[in-house]
Fold:
Amino acid sequence: METAALVVGALLLLGCLLLGYLAFRRVRLMRGGGVDVCLRRRSAVLRDNAAGWHFGVGRYRGDELAWHRLTSLWPGPTVVVDRTDLEILGRRPPTGPETYAIPHAGVVLRCRARGRDVELAMAPGVLTGFLAWLEAAPPGRSTGYRQAS
Structure:
């Protein structure tokens, strides 16, 4: 009985430490200029319209958007998108089931980066900042508005 209580206590402590780390990480990312962005790889779209969305924080680092998945223990970014390789293929509002999967998103962008398709979902204010970041590319560089071939 004592051993079981000790194991349960250790698991609860571990769970609290894990949740504390994830909360601290999110606050640190948001204070450093992060924005809420949901991401879905295109392969998930083929299975289910609302499946595959992951909450995260995006941070702009020069020509890169570094996306950090919220439920990841990895301290670095999960996905890095270079604006010189980014193509916006389409824009749409979230569909019915997606409104539950991505509750604060007003816009879903279908993008291609380095030949891989991803979808980014963000609130209208975040979209404005994202588009301004794309347009702020130095002269002679891509702005992300290329037509997909």
